[in-house]
Amino acid sequence: MAALQKIRNHAVMLITIIAVALAAFVVGDALTSTSSIVGNSRNNVGSVNGKTISIQDFQSKEKAFSDVIKERYQRAGQPAPSDADIRNSVWNRFLNTSLINSEMEEIGMTVTEKEVYDVTRSGAYPMLRQIPLFYNENGQYDINRVQQFFAFIDKPTEDMSKEEVAQQVQSIKYWEYWEEQIMQQMAQEKVMSLVLNAVSTPSAIVDIVNKCQSESKDVLVIKKNFADQELQSEITEDDIKAKYEQVKNEQYKTDGYRSVKLAIFNVNPSKEDYADTEAASNEIRESMKNANEEEVRALFAEASSQEYPYFSQYRSASRIESLFSDFAFSAAKDSVSAIQFVGGHFVMAKQMAPVKTASDSANISIIVIADQDKDALSKKNDSILAVLKSGSKFEEVAQSTSLDPQSAAKGGEIGWIQEGSQFAVTDFDNKVFTAKKGDVFSFDADGNPVKFIVKVNDVTKPVKKANIAVLGMKLEPSNTTDKDVYQIADRFCVENNNLQKFEAAADSMGIQLRSVPEMDKNQADIYIIPNGREIVKWAWNKDTELNSVSKVFDFQDMYVVAALYDAVDENEKYIPLSNKDVHDKVAELAKNAALAKIIAADLEKAEVNSTDTLKSININSGFIPMVGNEPAAVGSIAGTAVGAETKPIVGSNGVFKFKVIAANPSNISPVNVESLDRKVMSQVYSNLFKSLQDGAEIEDNRANFY
């Protein structure tokens, strides 16, 4: 039966959901989760209510979404989501779209192409703002670009050239992805609108909320914590089983999982590796002494790690590596420092040039000109220099002449720079950082028909500057070391082929096993090991038995052997009581439940005469001093009159009883009915999707492909 019909037939349940949402003031996130069932189809990634998606279609959607999302993050200068995150997003889109479409088919609702056409061509539909194509050069949404784009793709082909037709085809292909997303969004909006328009907050509930909010209470409290009490009789296994049946639906639902223990064999450099790398670094040091700049570059390319790229620029003391600050300003040209071992590197520095005195920073403006004809370029350069010399303002000439739009818009200003600038110009640094304020000169761009006319707006006070290149050889394990560690891991794997032997051997060898509990079959990674998907796949393989031990997995700088110590299949629905962690937690709950009955009976007779006063407890209170986060206590206090005592309240950590001694007016404004409606709608929205999923036939085969 469709979820909409369920809501119609179970109005009482819906009202209960709404009441709980209002009383707790909790807005649930509209997140979706899927039930994973291993599929038999070799080609289908999954299905929802009979609608399948093939691996080809899934990968096509994955590629389209990846292109869009990576472009968006690139524009924002942020790292893009991982491939696994992108795949999960594509799956969730397929899941939600299929669920909504199933509902729409059942109630006879559709989204037509004309509806999509109308909302997109207007440029007003919110999702259009997510499309990078419609951003202007400032990264802002531009409705003019929207209208220009649609005018182009709607243009009859007979009015276009072959090149324009080809471009139109590409544009239409680009638009197809977004058109599908918009159609899906509109479908979801239609279904949700149908449901949410039937939802409003009853006036009686508004009155109750306002009354509870209108005052705060001062109370006395007596409490008894479970941790401080002793239970006279033992909790039996029957007690634990009964408690498990009570809580399993709320706390121990599962889509299945696998739990493993990992023996990790790190591949670290040996003493021999240290000695060999130290000897090699000494050889490099000798070669550095008499090497010219080109030869030094070659040595860096051969021996220096990525952490120490070749860098030869004049720098002030504040920018020189502290390790070589003394060497940089005292050593003669071509000197090479002693080798130091720092951060896993054998590090040395070469003095590339004599120490000099120059400005550390310069504020410059530029005019960029270009011409393929060298003579014409030279004449243009001389003409501009003459105009500037005659008294014309550099800013005005830059705005009207410079080919660099960003700097031209600011009168040519680049701002403050230091040596090692971005301009590919010979002698640029040497001339700029020895210039005076107001100097103007030009440079040829090396290898390009371009000239830079530079004005030095300001310079900092001259300081001593050194030019050293710092080379670092990284200490890494050799192939021999890597092979030795692999053989140890392989022998461990072969000789300890079940969980009991695996744990005993690890203990005798001093290996600290790492537990990875409850791995989902689609889990892309293991927090302990980057790119640990292969271990997940091994644990979920149908041929992997409980307590078995894996082969040796090869990861960067480590070898790993896994043992499967716990497994729950997808069709079991709940984590079983046989799970030690579950059994221990449920046993604690059963013990607390038995204690609660005894404590509550004692507190029922007791009078609250404590000297512990808790002030200003309101329905909106979260944490209560001396009590903790106990919603039931907050609600009970709100509903108790001054001078009266509450019933004993069983909380998560103990049993409490309160006496209300004063009521104070609250400064909280009356509840906003529209705000309440939104909270209720959000809760209904979340429960609707959960209902759709619970009532759907979902087959998730992603683990067969990834």
Task: Describe this entry's structure for a reader.
The protein is built from 22 helices and 21 strands. With 706 residues, it is an alpha+beta fold. The strands form six sheets. A four-stranded antiparallel beta sheet has the order 16-3-20-19. The chain has a four-stranded antiparallel beta sheet with strand order 13-4-15-14, with helices on both faces.
Which features does this protein show?
alpha+beta, 706 residues, single chain, extended, 4-stranded antiparallel sheet, 22 helices, disordered N terminus
**Percentage of residues in strands:** 15-25%
Q: What does the average pLDDT come to? A: 86
Helix segment tally: 22
Poorly predicted runs are 1-40
Would you report the number of β strands? 21
- Rg is 36 Å
Largest sheet geometry: 4 strands, antiparallel
Category by helix and strand content: alpha+beta
Q: What is the molecular shape?
A: extended
In the sheet with the most strands, the strands line up as: 16-3-20-19
Tell me roughly what share of residues is in helical segments: 40-55%
Task: Tell me the distance between the termini.
Answer: 33 Å
